[in-house]
Amino acid sequence: MGRPRAFDEDEVVRAAVALFGGRAYDGVSVDDLVTHLGVHRNSLYKAFGSKRGLYLVALRRHLADDVGPLAEALAAAPDAATALRLVTSADLGLLLLAAVERAPADEEVAAEVAAALAAVDQAIAGALGISTELAAALTAAALGILLRGNPDGAAAALTHRLDPLD
Question: Which distant-in-sequence residues (6+ apart) come within 8 Å of 37 by Cβ?
Answer without folding.
Answer: 7, 12, 15, 16, 19, 44
